[in-house]
């Protein structure tokens, strides 16, 4: 459910016509809906209400915009971060350090020092080596580091290979069979406060069975550790719940997910932690684009839009589908290909798809672009860095400015010796 709907023939973000935003800011532009973000945050929390002691940390990597983080901070959400940069954004948005979880296989020494100093709530350790380094840092700073050990449960999330993280061959976490021994060794290190386990098997999960299987394995590991006298007070079940990208897609809902988790984990007697990203941010944003021209040739017409793979990388990276809709549809449809202006064949958003009829100058949107959209944008082909807007009722505001190619040109220089 989202708050992008047609009123008087024009697609609105809440009560703001997208035509008004495009007129003022230009295109392409990401537009987020505050009410949608809040609704998703509340629905996800409500879905877990049968469980005591729940901590929800929004996966900042899905949408790190400061205003977006601010909305979620006000909903009582913490943050799951994967870099010092994301940590600083979460702090700047008003998320408390103790509500921040730091994930990722490549936390550098500098990042770990900054995070210990900031007093973040939990490090999700992805290897024994990382734990040993963190222990040294925490000891030197005389600040014990709370941590969980991320375990690779070796289950197949049945999602796109590039966003699957819980199989033995993936780089994430420690092997399930070595986890208890590593937990024991890390627990003995001064400087670490090893308090639990973490798991995250992948993203855009559309089938709950692999998650259930992973959580059952984590529960068994928790019992084993407790049986050996270790303390396990926190279990972080990660994120990954998928969202519908195509109108009519039937996916497990947050309620289905909550029921499954409650079924597996209700008697664990821990603080259960969650790291949802896409399910909160995905349908909270659209990418507004203008049709540059419609190119006709031998096959289906090519709708060339002014957004490209540098603005929205998911179709090129993951063969992802984003619904396309005219901002002022005529009611007619045609079968067309949709592509951006970049000189790569992968800069194609859709092939042979039935879409609203559009022509030069028309506005359209790619839906479900609030997650892994603007955050993956770059300036390839010396294009601008795409701006972001947030709508809230009948108000809207720019929440990230467009960065023009001229500004990027300013940070480059030709060395003297090139003459
Ligand atoms: C990416 C990621 C998430 C969020 O995934 P979504 O599919 O956006 O919910 C959560 N935890 C970790 C460790 C991640 O890497």
Describe the structure.
The protein is of the alpha/beta class and 419 residues long. The protein contains 12 helices and 21 strands. Strands 4, 14, 15, 16, 17, 18, 19, 20 and 21 form a 9-stranded mixed β-sheet that branches. The chain has an 8-stranded parallel barrel with strand order 5-6-7-8-9-11-12-13, surrounded by 4 helices. A 3-stranded antiparallel β-sheet has the order 1-2-3. A hairpin with a 2-residue loop joins strand 20 and strand 21. Helix 2 packs parallel to helix 9 and helix 5 crosses helix 6. The mean pLDDT is 97. Bound molecules: pyridoxal-5'-phosphate. The site of pyridoxal-5'-phosphate has 16 residues, from helix 10. Pyridoxal-5'-phosphate binds next to helix 10.
């Amino acid at each position: 459910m989202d708050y992008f709907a047609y009123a008087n023939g024009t697609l609105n973000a809440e009560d703001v016509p997208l035509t008004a935003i495009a007129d003022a800011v230009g295109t392409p532009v990401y537009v987020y809906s505050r009410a949608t973000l809040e609704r998703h945050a509340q629905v996800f929390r409500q879905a877990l209400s049968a469980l005591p002691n729940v901590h929800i940390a929004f996966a900042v990597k899905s949408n790190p915009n400061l205003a977006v983080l601010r909305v979620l901070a006000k909903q009582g959400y913490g943050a799951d971060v994967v870099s010092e940069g994301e940590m600083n954004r979460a702090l700047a948005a008003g998320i408390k350090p103790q509500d921040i979880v730091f994930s990722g296989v490549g936390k550098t020494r500098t990042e770990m020092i900054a995070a210990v100093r900031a007093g973040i709530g939990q490090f999700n350790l992805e290897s024994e080596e990382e734990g040993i380094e963190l222990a040294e840092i925490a000891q030197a700073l005389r600040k014990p580091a709370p941590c969980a050990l991320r375990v690779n449960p070796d289950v197949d999330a049945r999602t796109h290979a590039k966003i699957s993280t819980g199989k033995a061959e993936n780089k994430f976490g420690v092997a399930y069979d070595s986890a208890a021994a590593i937990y024991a060794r890390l627990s003995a290190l001064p400087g670490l406060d090893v308090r639990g386990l973490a798991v995250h098997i992948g993203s855009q999960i559309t089938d709950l069975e692999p998650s259930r299987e992973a959580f059952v394995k984590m529960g068994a590991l928790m019992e084993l550790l407790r049986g050996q006298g270790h303390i396990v007070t926190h279990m972080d079940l990660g994120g990954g719940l998928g969202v519908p990208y195509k109108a009519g897609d039937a996916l497990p809902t947050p309620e289905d997910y909550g029921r499954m988790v409650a079924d597996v984990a209700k008697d664990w007697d821990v603080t259960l932690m969650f790291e949802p990203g896409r399910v909160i941010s995905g349908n909270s944003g659209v990418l507004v684009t203008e049709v540059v021209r419609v190119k006709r040739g031998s096959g289906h017409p090519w709708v060339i839009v002014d957004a490209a793979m540098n603005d929205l990388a998911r179709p090129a990276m993951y063969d992802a589908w984003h619904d396309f809709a005219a901002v002022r549809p005529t009611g007619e449809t045609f079968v067309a290909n949709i592509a951006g202006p970049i000189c790569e064949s992968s800069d194609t958003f859709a092939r042979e798809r039935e879409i609203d009829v559009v022509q030069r100058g028309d506005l359209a949107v790619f839906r479900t672009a609030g997650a892994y959209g603007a955050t993956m944008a770059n300036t390839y082909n010396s294009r601008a860095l795409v701006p972001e807007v947030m709508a809230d009722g009948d108000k809207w505001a720019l929440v990230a400015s467009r960065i023009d190619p001229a500004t990027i040109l300013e940070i480059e220089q030709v060395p003297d010796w090139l003459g």
